[in-house]
Amino acid sequence: MNLRVINPAFIEAMQRRGIDINKASPDDMRSYVCGQCHGEYYFEPESKKAVFPWDKGMLPEQMYAYYQEKPAGFDQDWLHPDSQAKMLKAQHPEFETWSGGVHGKSGVSCADCHMPYMRKQGQKYTSHWVTSPMRLTKESCMPCHTQSEAWLLDRVKTIQNNAWQLQRAAGQTVARAHEVIGKAGAVTKANQAELDKARELVRKAQWFWDIVAAENSMGFHNPDQVLNTLGRSIDMAHQAIATANRAAGTSF
């Protein structure tokens, strides 16, 4: 009945960060057992070994910088058919996003919210219904928060609605950037060096969008970081559009 971490990629990534899983506290383990699957990873091209890209840190910028060094020859997940940009695909980065948020930094574990403590006939136990805290607000939220359930639910929905609106705007702007780069690339005399800059900008813009879109809290795990990430995604996508038009002398 002990909590266990068995994913080699997670164990190795934490070791590289100076964290020994074997010395983790029970509270830490209540997040590590979730984080070993709910995190960003890639496969090394030759060995097909799974690796968590945390050597430089867990922020979107830091993980992107890690990928820029082409670890073990890994260069891309896929090639975008319109822009011909070498793209990265984010995988459900809940652990990374939560780690930098107010709950993660305050020592609130994944299980505290998603598998809260319950009481029945005088016994205390951990719920094994792994679900949204919004379904069990009293057990998940109110041990720490003194506000009413209605207030807490409204706060969650406000955060998620704000994140959704900006995520949609970012996604649409990134999509337009791919389209513009594709059109600019078809111009015979387009400046290839400038087009490459535009491709790098849209690659990073989409990574910043996807690190939010692929994460399953719609901003709640780390609202400040998520809104910052999406704002930067929109900015980089606009830069990509401007750079592509400059490369081709167009105004797509």
Describe this structure in words.
- The model has no long low-confidence stretch (mean pLDDT 97).
- Strands 1-2 form a two-stranded antiparallel ribbon. The protein has a two-stranded antiparallel sheet with strand order 3-4.
- It is mainly alpha-helical.
- The chain has one domain (8-248): Butyryl-CoA Dehydrogenase, subunit A, domain 3.
- The longest helix is centred in the middle third of the chain and has 37 residues, at 149-185.
- It has helices spanning 8-16, 26-35, 60-68, 94-99, 102-105, 110-114, 137-140, 149-185, 192-213, 223-248, and strands at 42-43, 50-51, 78-79, 86-87, 117-120, 123-126.
Summed up:
This protein is mainly alpha-helical and 252 residues long. It has helices at 8-16, 26-35, 60-68, 94-99, 102-105, 110-114, 137-140, 149-185, 192-213, 223-248, and strands spanning 42-43, 50-51, 78-79, 86-87, 117-120, 123-126.
Structural class: mainly alpha
| Approximate helicity band | 40-55%
Q: What would the CATH topology be?
A: Butyryl-CoA Dehydrogenase, subunit A, domain 3
Low-confidence stretches: none
Whole-angstrom Rg: 21 Å
Q: What is the CATH architecture descriptor? A: Up-down Bundle
How are the strands of the largest sheet arranged? 1-2
Name of the CATH homologous superfamily: Butyryl-CoA Dehydrogenase, subunit A, domain 3
Structure summary, number of beta strands: 6
Percent range for β-strand residues: 5-15%
Helix-strand sequence: HHEEHEEHHHEEHHHH
